[in-house]
Amino acid sequence: MAGAGASFVMPAEATEGTVDTELIEQGRELYLYGCSFCHGQNGEGVLEQASGNNYGPPLVGVGAAAVDFQVGTGRMPMAQPGVQAPRKQTIYTDQETRALAAYVASLGPGPAIPTEEMYDPNTIPEAEREEAIVRGGEFFRTNCTACHNFAGSGGALPEGKYAPSLVGVEPVHIYEALVTGPQQMPVFSDAVITPEQKKDIIAYLKYTDEMPSYGGFGLGSYGPVADGFAAWVVGIGGLVAFCVWIASHTARTNRKKKEEQA
C-alpha cells in the first residue's frame, strides 16, 4: 500500500521504492507530531465526545492533492477548529509537505498532485492561449462566480463562511482545489470539468490577475456593494461638503464676516 501511495505523489520516482518508503516514513513522523491530535493516529478522524461531530475529519482517501493544497497554502494545521480555515503563512517546507502528502496518499487512493503540464497555462501554445482564456472565462462564469465573484475576488457564504479570493493563488493550488473540494467547495471531477477545461479556467484567472483596471479604481472588484459604498461616501459626502462651502461663501456670510472684523 505504501508503494501505491507513493505513486500518487511522485510518479517519476515510483520505481525507486526505497526513496518513496523513506518519504512516507518521514511524512508519518511529521503527521504523528502535527496532525494526529485532530485526525487520529492513522488518519481515521476524531469525533467530539459531546456532539459527535468531526473534530478532525478522516484523511483516508483524500489523496495527496488535498494535503498539498491544505498544507501548501497554510490552511493546515489550524490553530483551532472553526467554520473556515483561512490562508496563512505555511509552517512546513516544500519537502515536508511532499512527505505529508506521500503518507496520506498511502492511507488510501485519492486525487494525486497534478503535473505542471496539467495546470500551468504557460504550457498552452501561444497560438491557442487566447482561445483558452475565452473558454476558461465561460467555464468560470458558469461554475464559479456564484461563490467567488465575477473577478475571482471571493464572496460571503452562509454561517460565517466565505469563498476566498483567487487573486494571486498558485495555479497548482487552484487545480487541487477543483479536484478535492476543500471545505464547502464542491468537487469538480474530470467528468464534470475535464482537465483541459480546468487549465482553461486557470489561464483565465491568471489573465485577469495581470489585466489592468481600464475603468480607473477597481475597488477590489467586489461588485455593486463596494461601488455603492464608494458612491455614497465620495459622491454624497463630496456633495454635502460642496454645499457647506457654498453656504460659507455667500454674500450674506461675507458681509457678516466683514462686520465682525470691523
The total beta strand count reads 4
The rough form would be described as elongated
Listing every helix as H and every strand as E from the N terminus to the C terminus, the arrangement reads HHHEEHHHHHEEHHHH
Side by side, the strands of the main sheet go 1-2
Task: Note poorly predicted spans.
Answer: 1-17
Instruction: Summarize the biggest pleated sheet.
Output: 2 strands, antiparallel
Distance between the termini: 98 Å
Q: Radius of gyration in whole Å, from Cα?
A: 26 Å
Structural class: mainly alpha
Mean pLDDT: 85
Give the strand content: under 5%
List the helices and strands and how they pair.
Elements: H1 2-9, H2 17-34, H3 36-39, E1 46-47, E2 54-56, H4 63-72, H5 94-107, H6 116-119, H7 126-143, H8 145-148, E3 155-156, E4 162-163, H9 171-180, H10 195-210, H11 224-247, H12 251-261
Antiparallel strand pairs: 1-2, 3-4
Task: Please describe the structure with a list of short key phrases separated by commas or semicolons.
single chain, 262 residues, mainly alpha, two-stranded antiparallel sheet, two-stranded antiparallel ribbon, 12 helices, 54% helix, 3% strand, disordered N terminus
How would you describe this protein?
This protein has 262 residues and is mainly alpha-helical. Helices cover 54% and strands 3% of the residues. It is built from 12 helices and 4 strands. The protein has a two-stranded antiparallel sheet. It has a two-stranded antiparallel sheet with strand order 3-4. Strand 3 and strand 4 (162-163) form a beta hairpin. Mean pLDDT is 85; it is low at 1-17.
